[in-house]
Amino acid sequence: MMKCKKNIIIIVMISILVFSLGFGANAKAFRVAVIMPSSINDLAFSQSMYDAMVAIQEEMGKEEFQFVYSESMFVVADAAAAIRDYASEGYDLVIAHGSQYGSSLVEIAPDFPNTSFAWGTTVNTFSDQGITNIFAYEARSEEGGYVSGVLAAKLSQTGIIGVIGPIETGDAKLYVEGFKAGVLATKPDAQVNISWIGSFSDVALASEAAQTHINVGADVLTGTAQMVVGAIGVARQRGVLWFGTQADQTSLAPEVVVANQVYDWTVALKPMIQLVREGTRGGSAYVLTLANGGLKIVVNQEALVRKTIQDIIEGKIDIEL
Amino acid sequence: MEAIIIGVLKSAIRLTTPYLYASIGETIGQLSGVLNLGVDGVMLMGAFSAFFTVLKTGNLGLGLLVAIVVGGIFGLLIAFVNVTLKAQQGISGIGFYIFGLGLSSLLFRTMIGTVQTVSGFSPLSIPLLSNIPIVGEIFFRQNILVYGAFALVPISWFILNKTPLGLSIRAVGQHPEAADSLGVNIVRIRYLTVIFGGMLSGIAGASLSIALLNVFQQNLTNGMGFIAVALVYFGAWRPLSVLSGALLFSTVNAIQIWIQVKGINIPSDFTLMLPYIVTIVVLAAMAKRYVRPPKALNKPFERGE
Description:
The complex is a heterodimer. Chain A has helices spanning 2-27, 45-60, 76-88, 102-108, 141-155, 170-186, 203-215, 229-238, 266-277, 301-313; strands spanning 30-35, 65-70, 93-97, 116-120, 134-139, 160-165, 191-196, 220-223, 241-246, 257-263, 285-288, 295-299. By secondary structure, chain A is of the alpha/beta class. Chain A folds into two domains: 23-140 and 265-292, 3-Layer(aba) Sandwich (Rossmann fold); 141-263 and 297-313, Response regulator (Rossmann fold, 3-Layer(aba) Sandwich). In chain A, the strands form two sheets. Chain A has a six-stranded parallel β-sheet with strand order 2-1-3-4-5-11, with helices on both faces. In chain A, strands 7-6-8-9-10-12 form a six-stranded mixed β-sheet, with helices on both faces. Mean pLDDT of chain A is 90; it is low at 21-26. Chain B has a single domain (2-121, 142-289), classed as ABC transporter involved in vitamin B12 uptake, BtuC, CATH 1.10.3470. Chain B has helices at 2-31, 39-57, 60-84, 89-112, 135-139, 144-162, 164-174, 176-181, 186-212, 224-234, 239-261, 268-285, and strands spanning 124-125, 141-142. In chain B, helix 1 (2-31) packs across helix 10 and helix 3 (60-84) runs antiparallel to helix 9 (186-212). Chain B starts with a helix and ends in a 20-residue tail after the last helix. The interface between A and B is large, with 40 and 38 residues.
């Protein structure tokens, strides 16, 4: 009986030892905290970062890479508090995913010299202010915008194309300008109407903007940021083509979404993580481009085929033989 | 020109709809003396529950009903906190807003997960009336929730001004002591108006998620509920004036969208301000005929005070 008890104690102690070793290995994992302005399932900006986190975790394994996030941080002051909390908890890398968080980072980063920070979309690492632990990342969204613009110009019958943007800044502005350039390079007499919603979240206004674009003759629409789901709904209802950006929006309206520019932030994050592990805390900026694979164009063949068939049936296309 | 006017006004009518439901509900509540700043939170709960029901069952009527029930339950909670527990109404309202915002986001995350679309109420042409040139196109080819919102204006006016119930509601909001001495059950009237207001806020949310937008996203209302409360003050607690305010705000909004789409060279930062500027200017111009709020607004009733 006594021996049995002794055995149990030994087994328990061994398992405690094994467990603590296991946790010891975990302590070496690379830990990332992300602060995002909207929700991780917004089919746009925040989701693109969340998807990148999941992809890196799948690649490196849960023992090697762990991440936590705070979403819907519309209020910059709340985001700043979260950034500071994560930094004090000893995360290896704290990502402030939004250009509105820049001024907070400048204040916080110097207080935590052993923590790395990253923010976007921008190329400003604040190294000119003597700060050495901030990375920056940006998407050259005008590149995918240009590709979509070329396609949009080819597909439009009326020659009128509508664009719905949130606020005239950051990657939204780049995307819209790239898209417009793509359209005009392909069809110089096309008309590109641009409307700004003044918010990243006003779904109702985005929906009415789409209605108005269609009312003035637009037969192809595009737009960027979270509130475009309202516009995609209108595009679907009124049978107008849609070009997405930031994330693959095909699932919202497979009949009308022609192509999406998708951000793959892993292209920026992987070298960043590598540098942090080697002891560099910041100072470099990463840019997603079509060339480095950070930007991808996901084409929805179904909408293209359907549109072409419809145009042939309605006599809008003359097949020259 | 004709097509432009039709487009802009159709847009305005659609945008007015959610405001109308929420503002009329809030008007009735405030007339009985209860200020509810939680409208936006209740709208979000209504929007989510309607959307979720339609996503799962495809039944639009059931979706609307669920939104009404959920809105009513929220109204009951708000009435309990404000009328029975006599909480400070401004503060508790903000609490209910944040609660509705958080709960609808949480439910959306756990029960739906990602942004999806549903087929909502489609436009319903009213026979004969929809054939009237211009007017028919603007007013009588909308979805059923739009008609409901506009019908609510004369109905609420009639109830408030021509029925004993309306008299009781207004008496409870103006002179609760006098009403009490005449045997009006103040607690019951206030519960009734706040629950009804909650139901209308629920429909306001549904009018977005299963009629106007056919989508649900976190914070879908984007603060519409607060504008609805402002419209109650703008409309001086009169349904017809609340309608005018909602129409003015929405029409200017529709015009500013059109200005941008047509590429008229005005900076978007300025056009986006237009609805707010015009509303404030009109409010200031009408300041002379300023109507006082119900005397007992924001005051819990204590018998024998």
